[in-house]
Amino acid sequence: MEHTKTALVEIQIGKILSFFLLIGIGVPLLIGIMLGIPIPTTLSFIGSTAVLQALAAPIGVLLHLDPWVVLAIMISFAFGIVLAIQEVLRTFALTSDRVSRWLSKIEQKMEDHQSLHRYGAVSCIFIAWIPGIGLYGTPAIAWILRWDRIQSAIFTVTGFFLASLLMIVIAEGAAILF
Predict the structure, then answer these.
(1) DSSP, res 18
(2) SS3 118
(3) Residues 62-71: contacts with CB within 8 Å, 24+ apart?
(4) pLDDT tens, 131-148?
(5) In which band, very low, low, confident or very high, does the pLDDT at 108 lie, cut at 50, 70 and 90?
(6) CA–CA distances in Å: residue 122 to residues 18, 36, 59, 150
(7) What span, in angstroms and rounded, lies between the C-alpha atoms of 43 and 28?
């Protein structure tokens, strides 16, 4: 039994690293390389996105990146990080009996609220905008409430996209004024 859990954890760690390194870091780097953006510039923008989330969009504008490039880099980072967080949480559920029991209790309570279970993932669009929760907390909320993984990832990234787009519009507007 313990050997099986160890193998499972190793597989999950591989998935987590793949999502984070390939999608979250690799795809934005590839976008930057294909568009002739210097690697340090792309890496600094990825780091800014990791720390500031949607508020990093104006930094991309300050780095003289096209707004659509800013969005492409931010969205690919967002998909990578959301999928990696989902896998981390899934690892907890698969390896911890205590967490599994807790999730079962939540599922039982959610049976009384089928519409929340069915349509709750859509609320990830709005949850992703909440300061302090944003990109990192929304997958955890969706996981706890047992919302569909793919839908919650798509809606979380959609909310992140909209927040980032708003920040770009504000930054571009401020640049015109000043």
Answers:
(1) I
(2) helix
(3) 62/171, 65/37, 65/41, 67/168, 67/172, 69/31, 69/32, 69/35, 69/37, 70/45, 70/164, 70/168, 71/161, 71/164, 71/165, 71/168
(4) 778 899 999 999 988 899
(5) confident
(6) 26, 36, 29, 11
(7) 8
Identify the residue whose tokens are 């976008």: 31
| pLDDT higher than threshold 70 for residue 177 | no
Q: Which amino acid is at 58?
A: P
Amino acid, res. 28: P
- The residue whose two tokens read 């919650």 is 152
pTM for this model (two decimals):
0.88
Instruction: Please give the pLDDT value at position 92.
Output: 86
Q: Where are the domains of the chain?
A: 2-177
Three-state secondary structure along 19-80? HHHHHHHHHHHHHHHHCCCCHHHHHHHHHHHHHHHHHHHHHHHHCCCCHHHHHHHHHHHHHH
Segment 69-79, tens digit of pLDDT: 999 999 999 99
* The Cα angle at residue 11 between residues 103 and 72, in degrees rounded to 5: 85
A 10 A CB-CB count for 166 gives: 13
Q: How far apart are CA 46 and CA 20, in angstroms?
A: 12
Whats the size of the chain, residue-wise? Answer: 178
Q: And the tokens for 104?
A: 């079962």
